[in-house]
Amino acid sequence: MQRDPLTIESLLALTALESLPRTGWVLRGVRTPETIGEHMLGVQWLCLALAHPCGIDAERAIALALVHDAPEALLGDWPRSAAELLPQGAKRHAETQAAAQVLAPLGQRARELWDEWQAQASPAARFVKVCDQLQLGVRLLRYAREGRSGLDEFLVTVRGIDTRGFAALEELRCDLVRLLEAERALRA
Fold this sequence. Notes:
68% of the residues lie in helices and 0% in strands. The chain is mainly α. Helix 9 (123-145) packs antiparallel against helix 10 (152-159).
């Protein structure tokens, strides 16, 4: 069986995620910031650790976490400030087009997972969305423990994560906030 050459091109395009930095950290002056690939891996670890206590199929959650930022291989990581300046729906449209381009050659399953993620219609997709947000808190804690400062706005973001329906994720969010506040107090 000969593989479609577009599959190889998609796989090559996705390798960009390994080195593309997360823009939010770059804009706050973090040297050697986390990459999109590192972020995606962190989300997958959260899914593995917390899916079962939340009544979610871990394999499905990990698969959703794998595709959730795939469009960024073609688009890069748009900060919230950039997305807010675009016409309504433009970011979502661009992500849908990029997902189709980069994931379609990988098979119907990859595209179905992306559609489920984007629609946020399943408990698994909503669970992964919260893990995506909580991973920011985990990375923020790492940066705080490394002595990095000027990132307090991200603590506000972690405090505001809506974990409704996922008690284990709420417990993690509270633990992260407590630890981040303790780190902040140490620096003060």
